[in-house]
Specification:
412 residues; alpha/beta; ten-stranded mixed beta sheet; three-stranded antiparallel beta sheet; globular
Length: 412
Amino acid sequence: MINGKAFHIMTKPTGSICNLDCEYCFYLEKEKLYPDKTEWAMNDEVLESYIKQYIASQKTGEVNFTWQGGEPALLGVDYFRTVIEIEKKYSGGKKISNSFQTNGVLLNDEWCEFFAENNFLIGLSIDGPEEIHNKYRIYKGGQPSFKDVMRAIELLKKHNVEFNTLTCVQKDNSYKAKEVYSFLKEVGSGFMQFIPIVERQAKPDGRTSLSLVSPEYEGDAQVTDWSVEPLQYGKFLTEIFDEWVLKDVGKVFVQIFDVALEVWYGMKASLCVFNEICGNAMALEHNGDLYSCDHYVYPENKLGNIVTDGLEKIATSSQQIKFGMDKKIKLPAYCEQCEYKFICNGECPKHRFIKTPDGEDGLNYLCEGYKYFFSHIDPYMRFMVNELNNKRPPANVMNWAKRNLTKKFNIK
């Protein structure tokens, strides 16, 4: 337990190795952290040690493993058959579940049969229709990946594999919100995640070989050309929300809308970026190195190695507890006074690299966009909370929204 919560680990059994070369990917260059590596698969010793320790460390009756990358499908189906065997060996009566984040291009009938047999939840990365998706999501040789991803979707549906979509919101597709949302609905995505792409780039300075730098980096660094613009991210979410609140409540689930309703209802956000304190979601590299967060795989954020140091010991170390508490402690006074602090809490520390209007460090780059979005959804959230409090379905908001829009725009 960290900060009173069970911790979660995003497991990267291939490290940063991937068969795609997405220009905006923050993780591809993590290969530079292991310059002498030639074998990137998590070996048998590390794999078994991790599964055994992770199950033992979880104090609940259900344990979820999340497999990501890089691209975990590069390891082949048999590798994950072994994963299932090891999980069963050490389950100790606990219910084990698995999530698998993939670009989809290697999926075939064998993969999908395996996923269906073992109840894997698949997260599929797709950025929108063909022209939008192929802007950045390309193979190493520059070939587009869209058609292969669409083939993967059809295979997942054919085998009745539960899947959701993860869409990276970057500068290009952020101006095409309705197009992206309509497309995702058409291809059968019932659960959508929209992840803002925000990175700063600097020339390696000798302290690290990485060019995409942390918010603590004090050298010359510029926001990348592909990063989503702050206000536009808020407008992107708002455009999709307006479509959703009129037609799709209860039928299509958008992660950030669900999380917003949780918080407006008085619950704790189920998404770490909106929690007051973080540190409960770590990243495990292929060799057993554990890092504070998937977005903080930097040398200074390495906690130790699970094989030599022990998973629970380093996951609950003072270093990691400080990492989580810093999110709250370093929140600018400007944010403390914000009317949306109750939902935002400064969002992800990775994005806190601009100054507040009064010159204080640590404001979130996306602040303007979040304020735009939260102010827009506030009346709808309040309505849905009232429905829940009166034991009525939140989906009633659709009729309420239609009536209000009819009055607002004098629609007959």
